[in-house]
Design goal:
Elements: E1 4-7, E2 10-13, H1 24-28, E3 31-39, E4 42-43, H2 46-59, H3 68-81, E5 87-94, E6 113-120, H4 129-132, E7 134-140, H5 155-166, E8 171-176, E9 179-183, E10 187-192, E11 195-198, H6 209-220, E12 225-227, H7 232-236, E13 240-245, E14 249-256, E15 259-260, H8 268-283
Parallel strand pairs: 7-8, 7-14, 11-12
Antiparallel strand pairs: 1-2, 1-6, 3-4, 3-5, 5-6, 8-9, 10-11, 10-13, 13-14, 14-15
The structure holds N-(5'-phosphopyridoxyl)-D-alanine.
Family: Belongs to the class-IV pyridoxal-phosphate-dependent aminotransferase family.
Organism: Paracoccus yeei
EC number: 2.6.1.42
Amino acid sequence: MTRTVYLNGDYLPEAEAKVSIFDRGFVMADGVYEVTSVLQGKLLDFPGHLARLSRSLTELGMGNPLSDEEWLAIHRKLVDLNGIDEGIIYLQVTRGNAGDRDFAFPPQDTPQTVVLFTQSKPGLADNPQARTGLRVISVPDLRWSRRDIKTVQLLYPSMAKMEAKAQGADDAWLVEDGFVTEGTSNNTYIVKDGKIITRGLSQDILHGITRASLLRYAAEAQMQIEERPFTIAEAQAADEAFFTSASAFVLPVVEIDGVKLGSGTPGPVATRLRELYLEESLKSAM
Ligand code: PDD
């Protein structure tokens, strides 16, 4: 079955969806994106993703090309057309086709480019990595300083991911001024004496939608949470570590820079939080 994607109002076979070489997203990485996960054919944490999209657009001086109802309708239609039971929907909005390359923004009335596509990922909920855990390395965080905006400038996170793979690990945690900011494409946590520790929100990290929901569910379950930065040394000495993102939900980390955490297997808190997130987020899925 050929994949149907969305481009500027049309639903097209993926090979027919074409964007200009002068698109600001292509030449300037001038665009924002969202990734929403799909379980049982339903969208998880959808209002959160729409709210963050709107914020990212505002921070870059771009308007929101569609209403919340229109965004929802497109997501649902793509899920239907592509028969997605488990997977993700990727959404991108750029400042559009400027007609040429120029550092100055094109006129405000330039139509934005809106692209959405699905990725089918059977087994997303029953991910074997949740049972084995992942190994991460640390690398310096060399990204720009507005990581709270979900832009498509993903070169450095890609390079960090490749460095992790080159070292036989699964992912990289980014470190700035001695403290972990976040993972290449996820928010990071450690657990010490039952307490969940994660960096607080600022321009240094992406305000994860999975993070927000998970911390709410954890608080409702009377779990202890402390929002503060932590170092790699503290993480290596922690009882557990894990990360969250829309595509990973909650995944345990069992090794950091070659040092095994505890017994080197996923701990009870991360395992419980994954169950809690899947259970609770499905209740509000739409
Ligand atoms: N990445 N931090 C970064 C740098 C991210 O790229 C992401 C998400 C997160 C987690 O945010 P959320 O819980 O809202 O997915 C944190 C997505 C999944 C991606 O780029 O594929």
